[in-house]
Amino acid sequence: MCSPPCNIPKTPPECARCPPMCCSPGISFCIFDLESAVFDTRHIYRRALLELASSYNRIVPEHLLIQSGPMETGEMAELICRKCKLPIGWEQFRSELNERTSELIANPPLMPGVERLVTHLSKCCVGLGLVTSCSESLYCSKIRGREQFFETFCTVLCADDTELRAFKPEPDVYLIAMARLGDAGPDCTLVFDGTAKGVQAARDARLPVVMLAEPELPCCWSELATLRLETLEEFNPEEFDMPPYSRTESPEPRKSQRSSRRSSQKSGASRRSSALQREAEEKAAADEEEEAEEGEEAA
């Protein structure tokens, strides 16, 4: 394993003496799906599909892209081959699609807002779990160069885990991850997932779930989600009785900069005011001396 074994929970040193739910009266555990809530791979799959179809001089209509969104790769490949009349079998198309996706997803970007949220939750002693549809070896290659960030997660459940018997939309993946987090339960655990099958799995595990969906995804596919967002930048921890960002973050530097500019402006104004005052006093003194001299001459 690229780090300590995935199935051994790791408690941050600063939270070692932290009893369950000590930092928040509500959610004390969070489970993230790697591919759709930590990495932003949503557009990568669409790009791979469109590029591969284009190589066979085919255009995939928008309604087919939406329809194939929640499908398994094989099911999606069969649909696209049949509807777009591709000159190859769906098995070959699936293989080529997997290869193209692997190339694009080798170094995926993080979901906007996830680094801030995970760092904040970790500082607040919230137990963090991670689930992924890739094998342990592939997981290690995906996180290469970001090991420090992923060490924040207490437990990681990979697709080739010996305890995992069924994949999404079955709830097993979230039930196992929740069990490995120790005191986690449906009343204090929140899931972040970006797929319809992931949302179904979380709800079947009786867990609230935040769905990170693309804007064009039909509302009917996210109706089981507790909350639907486009990215984690929109997520407000306080909506789930978790500590606000202000507990772990310093005031924004921009505010202090504006304050500094205002202070310097005030200082400049004060200096100008003082100079004008001195100039007025000097002029008044000169006028008094002149009047005194005129008075002596008159006498």
From TrEMBL:
Residues 287-299 have a biased composition (Acidic residues). Residues 238-299 are annotated as: Disordered. Residues 265-275 have a biased composition (Low complexity). Gene3D superfamilies: HAD superfamily/HAD-like, Putative phosphatase, domain 2. This is Probable pseudouridine-5'-phosphatase. It comes from Drosophila kikkawai (Fruit fly). GO terms for molecular function: phosphatase activity. The lineage of its organism: Eukaryota, Metazoa, Ecdysozoa, Arthropoda, Hexapoda.
